[in-house]
Amino acid sequence: MKYVDEFRLPGTARSLVRKIRELGTGATFMEVCGTHTMAISKAGLGPMLSPQVELISGPGCPVCVTSDMDIDTAVAVAHMPGVILATFGDMVKVPGSHGSLSDASAEGATVKVVYSPLEALDLARSESDSEVVFLGIGFETTAPVVAATILEARKRELRNFFVLSFHKLVPPALRALAATEDFSVDGFILPGHVSAVIGSRAYSFLPSEFGIPCVVAGFEATDILQSVFRLMQALTARPSVAIEYSRVVRPEGNQKALSVMYEVFEPVDAEWRGLFRLPASGLGLKEEYREYDAGAWPVEIPPATGDKGCRCGEVLCGKIKPSLCGLFGGACTPDNPVGPCMVSTEGTCASYFLYSYDEVD
Amino acid sequence: MCLAVPAEVVEILQNDVAFIDVGGLRKKINLSLVEGVQTGDFVLVHAGFAIEIIDEEEARKTMELFEELACLDEIR
What we know:
The complex is a heterodimer.
Chain A: H1 2-8, H2 10-22, E1 27-31, H3 34-43, H4 45-49, E2 53-57, H5 62-65, H6 68-78, E3 83-87, H7 101-106, E4 110-113, H8 117-126, E5 131-136, H9 143-155, E6 161-165, E7 167-168, H10 170-178, E8 187-190, H11 192-198, H12 205-210, E9 214-216, H13 221-234, E10 241-243, H14 255-264, E11 265-272, E12 276-285, H15 312-316, H16 340-343, H17 348-355
Parallel strand pairs in A: 1-2, 1-8, 3-4, 3-5, 5-6, 8-9, 9-10
Antiparallel strand pairs in A: 7-12, 11-12
Helix pairs in contact in A: 2-13, 3-17, 9-14
Chain B: E1 5-12, E2 17-22, E3 25-30, E4 42-46, E5 49-54, H1 56-75
Antiparallel strand pairs in B: 1-2, 1-4, 2-3, 4-5
């Protein structure tokens, strides 16, 4: 346990903060993982590093980047007769244009919260008269898990298990962000568990094409501080993708998880909140697995209602801090959320609301 | 949402099924996404699946953190 104690000493964090401050001023880094956003807020790293380093959040919360249109589709599927819709807890309260899955449940739809898609598979077996649809939301960390569940459904010869896949891929979103004209981020803190699957090489275009240095970070305060420190050092060196979270992440990633993911899914165009429609940035079921695809079902979705004034899209691209949204902390709170960034436990708005200092009066 | 919990694999059964120990709790997980897991390995668990093998020493450290967080939650 020696290593633990050394790693967790507050003195280590303090000295890292001091070192970062000594290295200069004015750098802006973007963290691209909701779990990082929450870790940064909980540890209060923002004010500790300011004004030398500004940390802003990117499109790293899968629930938050899911579009209203996709939520409306999920709600419509949940309302279909005989359907049980199963999904992760984070997704249930996110409002689309016509309410959330939680609202749908109140109106009579059957919505079940599961911890693992395998639970949805068990549900399909026990509720053989129903059609169980797993709503798949998540990045490359989650997509292999859902793919493995579909393979298991085939093995068990279950005919009443389906997936509504709104999975998304992180690198295409980062490419779109980096290519934005007014994008002025000096470095990326890359997601640890997405990278465990796809590997650090998947981001090599960021330094090579855009000159942006990156560090794959772990999830403790000292991990994040170390990553910031390495990014500061990288500002004056040749940009690259470094791995701070080396106890888990390898340059080539987890090949077995990737092969399962691409056995079942293929890249498709996808709608991102804040980034609009990006080519080959989502995952849809391949032809060979279409029998499990609830995305192919004909559903009627009422046209979207008017603008709610929510600025989650701009928050997700790092264009504004949550406090600049007129709804933040007033009309929109975790108890009564208007936008997804306030619903999800990893949403930027929720993390600012719960842990931030000067943003809330 | 990409949260993954480190845990020790305490028993490996057939068909990629294994049991992990998380803070004294025994839980069933699936190993089909990771190559070469052995009893005693620490794995990162996400949504009921192991997604990567991790270093034991590092795992102990993270578990301590989680226990600490759990204590904080209790206080709240």
